[in-house]
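Narrative summary of target 7.
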Amino acid sequence: MLAESEDLPPQDWGGCRVGLIRKAGSHPSVAGLSDNEISPLSRNDRPLSFRTNVRNLKAYSGVDPLGRLNPLCISPKLGGEVFKHLTCSKETNMHRLLLCLLLAFAFFLTAQAQPGKPQIRKLGTIDCDLVETTPIVFQNRLYRFEYVRKNYKPNTTGDSYFHFIDVETGKPTASFAEGFNLGCANVDKNTVYVYGVKGWGTTKIYQFQSKDLNEWTSAMVLEKPNWEIFNTSVCRGPNGYTMAIEFRADKEECGVPFTIRFATSKNLKTWELLPADRIFTKDRYSSCPTLRFLDGMYYMIYDEELPGPTYEPYLIRSKDLIQWESSPFNPFMVHSETEDKQIANPNLTTEQVEHIKNSVNINNADTDLCEYNGKTVIYYCWGNQQGIEFLAEAAYDGPMEKLLKGFFPE
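Modeled conformation, tokenized:
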């Protein structure tokens, strides 16, 4: 049989017997064995070892951050030479061997379409240099909250700010929250609430509220000295409202940055940080939370750092914000050179289209979503994770509850 990894036994994927082998100084590589085409190592005839160097490939199978065999751990070569190993007898037809290779790689590249996994349709890029956004439904209209950065080309104010876009008309509301960053939005009854930080990685969270998207009042609602606070997300909880907070602090409190803590409120005005055991997670990078609450369960999308590195959204859930279950269908979405770079906005200029076409893409991040007219609206960004980023949209043809619960099959 195939030489097995010390970590995981072989598994059957798409008719191939697949296991993991480690090479010193490298991440796991894939070994494939077809029952008909590739001989077991125990045969008496002398086996031939066929190696394909994948140091420049965009995909190879490995172990995801949760310790599971996952064909969507996508990476180039890391810290040593990584090879795909196929072992066959002298009699093996080389054409069949190459076909086996092609089928294996085709399987890895299409592994997102796992049976039973809710199918998210990527619609393409709608803007450049926009990242943190939130879709909301207010007065029966779909809006997109946008945090507009200083480097956004149409921004001539010299500072960051927030506004909303009427998705149907494309028209922006009046801007507000000048100098604020990393916002999120939610609707409660007839009021829109927006949360953000003044600066980048500061100690205070501010809330803005409006009943018409034009007149806004603001207040500081939570302060945590010695923290650097970034993205937030707010939803209704079991006893009021719950906020997820991405932060960075000393190693004892934060572990490996970035990390996510939680706060609650009865009235959306006074917020209280929950005990330190309500956390995700101190052992590795976890950022950009989007929090929802359904039928006694919190569902959270966050950004996971994978080998490469690449950054993909993962979906987890918890009853108590302490013990977390990861979806067996993770990642929630996977970055794609073709799907992400589709043009979904006909008003983009030729220069912007070329910029999209030629930019590096290693992530899907800052995912947020809402339900509108029975379907789920999804916004996310893609880019190089270092400031060159693009806003894109996706959709799920069903309600948000069905989407989130569908990632956790019974």
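Helices lie at 94-109, 251-254, 350-358, 400-406.
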